[in-house]
Amino acid sequence: MKKTHLPSKICKVCQKPFNWRKKWERVWDEVQYCSERCRRNKNSKND
Fold first, then answer.
1. Which residues pair with 18 in a beta bridge?
2. What Pfam families does the entry give (predicted)?
3. Which of 18, 36, 38 lies closest to 28 in space, CA to CA?
């Protein structure tokens, strides 16, 4: 699969787009955050 054709999503915390990664291959439907940092900060306000 070419990198230009990878699926992408928007991070729920930082609102930035992120692309599919091999390590997320089996859980892509459940991935909501672009990074561990965003996942840890999911409850903090971003304003």
1. 9
2. DUF2256 (PF10013)
3. 18
Residue 9, phi then psi, degrees to nearest 5: -140, 170
Q: What would the two tokens of residue 9 be?
A: 């999503």
| pTM greater than 0.90 (yes/no) | no
Burial bucket for residue 34 (CB in 10 Å: 0-12, 13-18, 19+): buried
Q: Shortest CA distance to 37 belongs to which of 8, 7, 16, 20?
A: 16
> DSSP H helical segments within 1-47, as ranges?
36-40
Q: 23-39: per-residue pLDDT in tens?
A: 999 999 999 999 999 99
Neighbouring C-beta atoms of residue 44, cutoff 10 Å: 8
For the chain, how far is it from start to end, CA to CA, in angstroms? 37
